[in-house]
Amino acid sequence: MLKMKKAVLLLSGGLDSTTTLYWAQRRGYKVFCLIFDYGQRHHKEVLIAKKIARRAHCDCHIVRISLPWEGSSLLDKKIAIPQGRSIDVKKIPTTYVPARNIIFLSFAASFAETIGARVIFIGANAIDYSGYPDCRPAFFKAYQKALKKGLKVGTQGKEIKIITPLISKTKKEIVQLGLKLKVPYHLTWSCYQGGPRPCGVCDSCRLRHKGFESLQIIDPALC
């Protein structure tokens, strides 16, 4: 019996990270999910991510960290979540959390090296997105170089590779891929708010809606 390849995956419970999880599993990886509880606006996404990891039969680890200086509307409830804005990737919205992916990937790299995984998956997208700088290909290319220099495996001529399978896909293409993979989109949560139903007007909801609408499909999370 062949030993499965280990991989670490950043799981938020949203459309992109969940699609990436099923994509990685289809390629034969034994996925270990990292779920971050970082003081975000609501705890719902942590609960959703745990449920998705269990459904996919993955080990999951909750990483609790604090960013007490806030600096984002996802951390500070006194800052309003943008609603219905014209999404311009050249204008970084208040929902940007300073250095979030740098922080998350650092935890993922530490975990990966510890368990002997050689791959980190992240569902970042740089096509239909809000313009976060740490979701762009140039960032991941630079961070990959940092990992090679800063990890023990790097000094041994090996590497822990960051894989971003959705980076250049539209939301339509992501949804199409997820449907083929039988991703349980009805369980996922993308909204920046933590209400009983998605708000429908934040950037994340609108980008998600764009993917399903372009396929003339009702988002299962709204059914």
Overall structural class, as computed from helix and strand content, comes to alpha/beta
How many helical stretches?
7
**Number of structural domains:** 1
Low-confidence parts: none
The level-1 CATH class: Alpha Beta
Q: What's the count of strands?
A: 5
- Give the SSE string: EHEHEHEHHEHH
CATH T-level topology: Rossmann fold
Strand order of the largest sheet: 3-2-1-4-5
Distance between the termini: 42 Å
Computed over alpha carbons, the radius of gyration is 17 Å
- Give the overall form: globular
CATH architecture classification: 3-Layer(aba) Sandwich
What does this structure look like?
By secondary structure, the protein is an alpha/beta fold. The chain has seven helices and five strands, in the order βαβαβαβααβαα. It has helices spanning 15-26, 44-55, 100-115, 137-150, 152-155, 171-181, 203-213, and strands at 5-10, 29-37, 59-64, 119-121, 161-163. It has a five-stranded parallel beta sheet with strand order 3-2-1-4-5, with helices on both faces. The longest helix is centred in the middle third of the chain and has 16 residues, at 100-115.
Task: Briefly say what this structure is.
The protein is α/β, with parallel strands linked by helices and 223 residues long. Helices cover 36% and strands 12% of the residues. Helix 1 packs across helix 6 and helix 6 packs across helix 7.
Chain-wise SSE layout:
Blueprint: E1 5-10, H1 15-26, E2 29-37, H2 44-55, E3 59-64, H3 100-115, E4 119-121, H4 137-150, H5 152-155, E5 161-163, H6 171-181, H7 203-213
Parallel strand pairs: 1-2, 1-4, 2-3, 4-5
Helix pairs in contact: 1-6, 6-7
